[in-house]
Amino acid sequence: MPIDTLQTTEWLRQLVCIDSVNPDLDPSGAGEREAAHWLAAACRTIGLEVEVHEVAPGRCNTIARWRGSGGGKSLLLTGHIDTVSLKDMVGDPLDARIEGDWMYGRGTYDMKGGVVAALSAVDALKREGFTPAGDLVLGFVCDEEYASIGMEHLVTKVRADAAILTEPTDDRVIIAHKGFAWLTLTTRGVAAHGSRYDLGADAIRAMGNLLHTLDGMERDILPRRTHALLGRPSVHASLIQGGLGLSTYPDACTLRIEHRLLPDERGDVLLDLWRDALADWQARDASFRGEVTLDFTREGYELPADHAIVRAVQDGLVRVNGAELPVGGVPFWMDSAILGAAGIPTVTFGPTGEGAHAAVERVSLASVFRSAAVLAEAARAWCG
Ligand SMILES: [Zn+2]
Fold first, then answer.
1. Is the pLDDT of residue 382 over 80?
2. For the chain, what is the domain count?
3. How much distance in Å is there from the Cα of 333 to the middle of ligand 1?
4. What is the 3-state secondary structure (H, E, C) of the chain?
5. Is the pLDDT of residue 361 over 80?
6. Which residue segment(s) compose the domain that 242 sits in?
7. pTM of structure
8. For residue 79, how far is its CA from the centre of ligand 1 (angstroms)?
């Protein structure tokens, strides 16, 4: 599959030079409007039908369609165009400088390299004279790094028989990732002078009980569940607050915790688990007062390893690299869960690099070309 490496490098350089920092993460961030319009223009130059949707002020998605001739399966190639902050980076974060095979800069690896690989794959199929039977759609979304409002919007505009999310996977085919849940535990006490044990009730000591419960979950209960690609679920304490002064019984204590979940686990089940723990402590000590809220949760995702879109990407890898790699899972959450929940089976595959969210970020240009070739092979097999 002949990828235009000069064009691909220039596209990536131009896209990296555009500030698309997520403004919900860093208020000085530019948002995705300029990057979305740049992508729209690039998609028009290769002959696609383009729409830009302003999902929220300054927050844009780009959708580009290559209509199929009919009767084939449709495919969505998708990725996010927002990045994390430019602060604390070494050197100019937006200069897209190239040293050998590496392009440096914020978003090169996470994930403008994958976005441009998808664009370049469609360009290669266009130049080859390929005619898809099913629609081939590019969907570039805002806000993955914060609340995924872009992907939530995209799935209301695009239907597809499968999707390939081109997040950087270091050339691996990823079929599973974990979910997560944020909960707040609160214990209640009674404020009183530190000498008045007869009047005061210590909310922080009561929270110690719940930390003991969390310790038992993390040590004994959660390790009993394991997933072949994702390991075990986990829980940890994130933030704790409480107390009024050195000589005062604390009236309240709040603990924010995070659970990381296997694909078959749900956040609302955790709410029941913690309510049971609160009831247990209350049964042991009638003065114990506590409550729990589920603040935010995202489910994990898993696609069967024998799904046809997994096969299509693996076959593409064999054609481009000569061999496939074992399918894998990643511990962190991705937009693929939203695609999956919308009924679009999704596999994740993208370039190699390092430094996502770090002070030095870079992507291997050769891996961007390779990803583009694999995506083109997979799209030709799937949509043909
Ligand atoms: Zn990413």
1. yes
2. 2
3. 10
4. CCCCHHHHHHHHHHHHHCCCECCCCCCCCCCCHHHHHHHHHHHHHCCCEEEEEEEECCEEEEEEEECCCCCCCCEEEEEECCECCCCCCCCCCCCCCEECCEEECCCHHHHHHHHHHHHHHHHHHHHHCCCCCCCEEEEEECCCCCCCHHHHHHHHHCCCCEEEECCCCCCCCEEEECEEEEEEEEEECECCECCCCCCCECHHHHHHHHHHHHHHHHHHHHHHCCECCCECCEEEEEEEEECCCCCECCCEEEEEEEEEECCCCCHHHHHHHHHHHHHHHHHHCCCCCEEEEEEEEECCEECCCCCHHHHHHHHHHHHHHCCCCCCEEECCCCCHHHHHHCCCCEEECCCCEECCCCCCCEEEHHHHHHHHHHHHHHHHHHHC
5. yes
6. 179-298
7. 0.93
8. 8
